[in-house]
Amino acid sequence: MSVSVVVVRAQEPEDVAALTEVLNQPRAIWGTLQLPYTSLAGRKARWEARPTRWGDLRLVALVEGKIVGSLGLDRFEGRRSHAAAFGMAVHDDYTGRGVGSALMQAMIDQADRWLGLKRLELTVWTDNHRAIALYERFGFEREGVLEDYALRDGVFVDALAMARIRK
């Protein structure tokens, strides 16, 4: 079932509390490199310490005024300024309802039409089949497996490197 209206907009400082709720969801933690039980104070400190760089993008997705997802795009510098990496999370109660697709579409539009990015990169757990399917629908291709990429719930897990190259 998809959500009737997903509004995507830039992340604002006052969104940190709602984002903390999204990112502390069990399934969101499982699918990201975030740590469980991150406090609001910790997330605010991270937000305030983050450098503002041209070409970076922080988006939130709202359903009926509630923040239910986020996406961050970080542009590389120097000889890799044509590329960026991103990560996203969706509130556990809103997965499979079009939120991820809305965030992906907004990010790709920005990357292609305003930032002129040629390459978008991501890593995703090899067992996160729903996310892999979403990325493939948006033109991302598998580039390789990163073995024992990170610790997740006490076990080292593999990640899949994927990229979308604009021709």
Second CATH tier, the architecture of the domain at 7-118 = 3-Layer(aba) Sandwich
CATH superfamily of the domain at 7-118: Gcn5-related N-acetyltransferase (GNAT)
> Main beta sheet: strand number and arrangement?
7 strands, mixed
Poorly predicted runs of 5 or more residues: none
Please work out how many helical segments DSSP would assign: 5
- Overall 3D shape: globular
CATH topology of the domain at 7-118: Aminopeptidase
Strand numbers in spatial order across the main sheet = 1-2-3-4-5-7-6
CATH class of the domain at 7-118: Alpha Beta
Global Rg: 15 Å
What do you see in this structure?
With 167 residues, the chain is α+β, with helices and mostly antiparallel strands. It has a domain at 7-118: 3-Layer(aba) Sandwich (Aminopeptidase), CATH 3.40.630. Helices cover 29% and strands 35% of the residues. It is built from 5 helices and 7 strands; from the N terminus they run E-H-H-H-E-E-E-H-E-H-E-E. It has helices at 16-23, 26-31, 40-49, 99-113, 129-137, and strands spanning 7-10, 57-63, 66-75, 83-90, 119-125, 141-152, 155-165. A 7-stranded mixed sheet has the order 1-2-3-4-5-7-6, with helices on both faces. The longest helix is centred in the middle third of the chain and has 15 residues, at 99-113. The model has no long low-confidence stretch (mean pLDDT 93).
